[in-house]
Inverse folding.
Protein backbone atom coordinates (compact mmCIF):
# COMPACT_ATOMS: atom_id res chain seq x y z
CA UNK A 1 0.00 0.00 0.00
CA UNK A 2 0.99 3.59 -0.38
CA UNK A 3 -0.11 6.85 1.21
CA UNK A 4 -0.75 8.98 -1.85
CA UNK A 5 0.54 12.54 -2.01
CA UNK A 6 -2.26 15.07 -1.67
CA UNK A 7 -2.83 17.17 -4.74
CA UNK A 8 -3.04 20.93 -4.65
CA UNK A 9 -6.58 22.33 -4.99
CA UNK A 10 -6.84 24.16 -8.29
CA UNK A 11 -9.53 26.39 -9.80
CA UNK A 12 -11.67 24.80 -12.48
CA UNK A 13 -10.52 25.91 -15.94
CA UNK A 14 -12.81 28.68 -17.31
CA UNK A 15 -13.46 26.79 -20.54
CA UNK A 16 -14.99 23.98 -18.49
CA UNK A 17 -16.84 25.86 -15.74
CA UNK A 18 -18.88 28.96 -14.92
CA UNK A 19 -18.69 30.35 -11.39
CA UNK A 20 -16.36 29.37 -8.57
CA UNK A 21 -15.27 25.74 -8.90
CA UNK A 22 -12.29 24.11 -7.19
CA UNK A 23 -10.96 20.67 -7.95
CA UNK A 24 -8.57 18.14 -6.39
CA UNK A 25 -7.21 15.33 -8.53
CA UNK A 26 -7.28 12.54 -5.94
CA UNK A 27 -6.47 9.43 -7.95
CA UNK A 28 -4.81 9.20 -11.34
CA UNK A 29 -3.46 5.72 -11.99
CA UNK A 30 -1.77 4.31 -15.07
CA UNK A 31 -2.42 1.07 -16.93
CA UNK A 32 -4.12 -1.25 -16.42
CA UNK A 33 -6.86 0.51 -14.41
CA UNK A 34 -6.59 4.13 -15.60
CA UNK A 35 -8.83 5.18 -12.71
CA UNK A 36 -9.44 8.91 -12.32
CA UNK A 37 -11.08 10.43 -9.23
CA UNK A 38 -11.60 14.15 -8.80
CA UNK A 39 -13.11 15.93 -5.82
CA UNK A 40 -14.94 18.93 -7.29
CA UNK A 41 -16.51 21.71 -5.23
CA UNK A 42 -19.06 24.11 -6.75
CA UNK A 43 -20.25 27.36 -5.15
CA UNK A 44 -23.94 28.31 -5.51
CA UNK A 45 -24.71 28.95 -9.19
CA UNK A 46 -21.52 27.30 -10.43
CA UNK A 47 -21.65 24.54 -13.05
CA UNK A 48 -19.75 22.73 -15.75
CA UNK A 49 -20.13 23.50 -19.43
CA UNK A 50 -21.97 20.94 -21.56
CA UNK A 51 -19.63 17.97 -22.08
CA UNK A 52 -19.42 14.22 -22.59
CA UNK A 53 -17.08 11.39 -21.51
CA UNK A 54 -16.19 8.68 -23.99
CA UNK A 55 -16.00 6.05 -21.23
CA UNK A 56 -18.83 7.38 -19.05
CA UNK A 57 -18.66 8.90 -15.58
CA UNK A 58 -20.01 8.22 -12.10
CA UNK A 59 -20.74 11.09 -9.73
CA UNK A 60 -21.04 10.61 -5.96
CA UNK A 61 -22.53 13.67 -4.29
CA UNK A 62 -20.66 14.35 -1.04
CA UNK A 63 -22.09 17.70 0.03
CA UNK A 64 -24.92 20.12 -0.57
CA UNK A 65 -27.47 20.26 -3.36
CA UNK A 66 -26.93 20.07 -7.08
CA UNK A 67 -28.27 19.26 -10.50
CA UNK A 68 -27.20 16.86 -13.24
CA UNK A 69 -28.87 17.32 -16.63
CA UNK A 70 -28.66 15.28 -19.82
CA UNK A 71 -29.06 17.02 -23.18
CA UNK A 72 -32.71 16.81 -24.22
CA UNK A 73 -33.61 15.27 -20.89
CA UNK A 74 -34.88 16.31 -17.51
CA UNK A 75 -32.68 17.60 -14.74
CA UNK A 76 -31.94 15.40 -11.74
CA UNK A 77 -31.91 17.20 -8.41
CA UNK A 78 -29.21 15.56 -6.31
CA UNK A 79 -27.98 15.76 -2.73
CA UNK A 80 -25.46 14.08 -0.44
CA UNK A 81 -25.31 10.31 -0.91
CA UNK A 82 -26.79 10.29 -4.41
CA UNK A 83 -24.92 8.45 -7.17
CA UNK A 84 -25.44 9.36 -10.84
CA UNK A 85 -24.11 7.31 -13.74
CA UNK A 86 -23.57 9.10 -17.06
CA UNK A 87 -23.41 6.90 -20.15
CA UNK A 88 -20.42 7.00 -22.53
CA UNK A 89 -20.92 9.83 -25.00
CA UNK A 90 -23.94 11.26 -23.15
CA UNK A 91 -23.92 15.07 -23.29
CA UNK A 92 -24.64 16.60 -19.89
CA UNK A 93 -23.66 19.17 -17.29
CA UNK A 94 -23.48 19.17 -13.48
CA UNK A 95 -23.37 21.87 -10.85
CA UNK A 96 -24.66 23.37 -7.62
CA UNK A 97 -28.14 24.79 -7.22
CA UNK A 98 -28.37 28.56 -7.05
CA UNK A 99 -28.70 28.65 -3.24
CA UNK A 100 -26.39 25.85 -2.05
CA UNK A 101 -22.87 24.56 -2.39
CA UNK A 102 -22.40 21.14 -3.97
CA UNK A 103 -19.40 18.83 -3.94
CA UNK A 104 -19.00 15.52 -5.73
CA UNK A 105 -16.45 12.88 -6.46
CA UNK A 106 -16.18 12.33 -10.22
CA UNK A 107 -15.05 8.80 -11.08
CA UNK A 108 -14.04 7.76 -14.55
CA UNK A 109 -11.41 5.94 -16.51
CA UNK A 110 -8.75 7.50 -18.67
CA UNK A 111 -8.49 6.47 -22.28
CA UNK A 112 -4.74 6.92 -22.57
CA UNK A 113 -5.20 9.74 -25.04
CA UNK A 114 -6.67 13.23 -25.07
CA UNK A 115 -8.37 14.80 -22.08
CA UNK A 116 -8.89 12.74 -18.89
CA UNK A 117 -11.78 10.39 -19.34
CA UNK A 118 -11.84 11.03 -23.08
CA UNK A 119 -13.93 14.10 -22.30
CA UNK A 120 -15.32 16.36 -25.00
CA UNK A 121 -16.21 19.97 -24.23
CA UNK A 122 -19.18 21.92 -25.62
CA UNK A 123 -20.71 25.32 -24.95
CA UNK A 124 -21.40 26.89 -21.56
CA UNK A 125 -24.77 26.36 -19.88
CA UNK A 126 -26.69 29.62 -20.31
CA UNK A 127 -28.32 31.39 -17.36
CA UNK A 128 -31.76 30.52 -18.80
CA UNK A 129 -30.89 26.82 -19.10
CA UNK A 130 -29.37 26.88 -15.63
CA UNK A 131 -32.17 28.66 -13.82
CA UNK A 132 -34.83 26.47 -15.46
CA UNK A 133 -33.12 23.36 -14.07
CA UNK A 134 -31.31 24.50 -10.95
CA UNK A 135 -32.98 27.69 -9.79
CA UNK A 136 -34.96 28.21 -6.60
CA UNK A 137 -33.20 25.57 -4.49
MN1 LIG B 1 -19.37 14.98 -16.48
Amino acid sequence: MELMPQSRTTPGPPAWFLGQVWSDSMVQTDDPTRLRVQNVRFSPGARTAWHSHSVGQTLLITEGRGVVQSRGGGALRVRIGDVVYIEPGEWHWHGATDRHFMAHLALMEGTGQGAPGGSELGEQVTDDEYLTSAGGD
Notes: The radius of gyration is 14 Å.
